[in-house]
Write a structure and sequence with these properties.
With 172 residues, the protein is mainly alpha-helical. It contains five helices and three strands, in the order αββαβααα. The protein has a three-stranded antiparallel β-sheet, covered by helices on one side.
Length: 172
């Protein structure tokens, strides 16, 4: 029984000691990290303490800003990914027209909802409902929620308008 306890204790100590010794000292030199003590001393780096450091090597791809400077005058968001099938002009115009009609429909719904919300909000003084006459905080909470809903809906309208602006002009 004592032998099993000693083996368990030795195994536990070994398991705790191994991960701690596996991590070398790491120094931070501004935005760079190194485990080379000579370089760290030359640059005046500080020792990192309190945790392991994981370094992920770069993928070799240029930064996103460098990649998008393709020289074309168009927006990079409108370009299809490499290897995707080419869509004929007629089909693309049909898709754009369908997207425009869906967005215009959504815009009309959102604008109608905005008008309804503004009418109900009544410039920050909506009609009190039920127990709100006795519980003023409940009224204030409802007014704040209405104001937030107005702001969200206005944001939705702005987003739909942005999307409509990104579509090519309507062709007759």
């Amino acid at each position: 029984m004592k032998t099993a306890s000693l083996i368990f204790l030795a195994g536990s100590l070994l398991a705790v000691a191994l991960p701690a010794s596996a991590q070398e000292r790491v120094w931070r030199c501004g935005n760079e990290y190194t485990n080379n003590s000579t370089i760290a001393q030359q640059k005046g780096c500080k020792v990192m303490e309190g945790g392991n450091v994981t370094v992920v090597q770069g993928s070799g791809m240029p930064a996103p800003a460098a990649r998008s400077s393709g020289g074309g005058g168009g927006s990079s968001a409108a370009r299809a990914p490499a290897g995707s099938p080419r869509v004929e002009g007629v089909d693309q115009r049909a898709r754009d027209g369908e997207a425009r009609s869906v967005l215009e429909s959504e815009l009309k719904k959102a604008e109608a909802r905005q008008a309804e919300l503004q009418k109900e909000y009544n410039n920050g003084e909506p009609e009190k409902q039920g127990s709100e006459g006795r519980n003023y905080q409940k009224y204030l909470d409802r007014v704040a929620e209405m104001k937030a809903e107005l702001a969200r809906n206005e944001s939705d309208i702005a987003g739909i308008r942005r999307e409509l602006g990104r579509l090519p002009a309507k062709q007759q």
